What we know:
mainly alpha, de novo design (two linked rop proteins), 3 domains, 20 helices, 1% strand, flat, disordered N terminus
Amino acid sequence: MTDQPHNMEGMGSRGVTRPMMDMKSHEHKKDHEHMDTDMGDMKMSADDRMIMLKDHHKQTLWVYWVIVLLGFWMIASPLTFDYGKNVVEPAGGRPIWLSLGDRIAAMYWSDIISGLLLVVFGWRSLKPNRPYSVWIICFIGIWISMAPLIFWAPTAIAYYNGTLVGVLIIALSILIPGMPNMITFMKMGGNVPTGWSYNPSSWPQRAIMIGLAFIGWLASRYLGAFQLGYIDTAWDPFFGEGTLNVLNSDMSHSLPISDAALGTLAYTIEFLMGFMGGTSRWRTMPWMVTFFGILVIPLGLVSIFLVISQPLTVGAWCALCLFSAIIMLPMIPLQIDEVIAMWQHMMQRKQKGDSLWTVFWKGGEALSTENDERTPELVTFVDKPWKVLKSSIWGMTAPWQLTVSVVIGLWLMISPKVFGLGIQTSAANLNHLGGALVIVFAVVAMAEVLRSFRYFNILLGLALAVLPWLIEDTNMTLNLTTSLAGLIIIALSFAKGKIKETYGLWDKYVV
């Protein structure tokens, strides 16, 4: 590709990963181009867009050949690696919905059929303008990633092969070449939301999410490998047999599939979605930002709540489960700003008379021509790591009030142990759950757009101040410290703290 202008969505900065390629290369094709540019906005005819679509397809043609080859790989895998040899059973004698013979057969045919479909639709995608074939390939990749969980892959090689090839297929179908046929409808314009002081879809903002998702994926994959039976034990540096007790508990066995392996799949999708789209995806891909936000925020909160409820339901802590929750928690305040920017854009387009349905799936005209000149380039990380790191957390600040609330929450969680109370006593349950929720609301409130979440800690502080005196299996010292902690949390939850950024229409909700 030729030189890329800075304001072109960051496209081309990762090779041939985006269909909206640089305009300079097309200026040399005057016989094909009829473009009218005005203040950075790009207006192209359908013929112009089709020419660019075909050019981009030529540059990414190798992707679809690789998909065809991976299809043959999947067909050959169960024939090469016998899924009926060296089989394992799930940990803890867990009953599952398939017999061993059915598990072997299901993985065998799933891989072969998936491979055949990849060959067929990969071949079809060798021609441009076949978006449905590309999307089908993407969903085949998702299925290949899910099949080892659903069918309880009987061998580690079947699990490893499926999850690795699944990721590659997803990346090759919609990440490396970009979203299928996006060039036919995408509107160009600025990448800073109206009234915002930074771009929430910049690469540093997304890179920290990608990094956290990968770390969480490593932890979840290890726990999933134990539940699926590929390793004999799960290491816990702090709680002894706690991790084994949690992973083999009735709560963990309540799902028909491994909950840890399901978490691995969730982190996989989060990791991949972090790469998807350009630096204006809050405007050009509202559907993707919405699904990413659902995966990170409500589902992330459910996952965190399940982890912090372990002492109440199981009577044990799991160190790596806690670690996964610690990884997931900051992802919520780090992601919410992009969701808010997307919501603002949709509301503004609705006021202009656009269909919300159309804007949701195809984006909309830009309301601003302002491009991001503030964010440092991600490639400068090696030379200026601190500068890039600071830009990755714009929109998330830690006022001393919230920081102290987090410290108090940690104290509440460990105080039952300090004062010699058993993990399953009512007082311990109160402090474990109360302290964990204090931390959750304080960290979520570190997102400037969700600073109002600190008010939930007023209610929690009130409960912590009163409830210890209504519990029998406790002691006076713990009661006093818990009540005092609750009162301090209440006092700390009134001040908003300094707000460093601006958020357009959302500023009025930052209270």
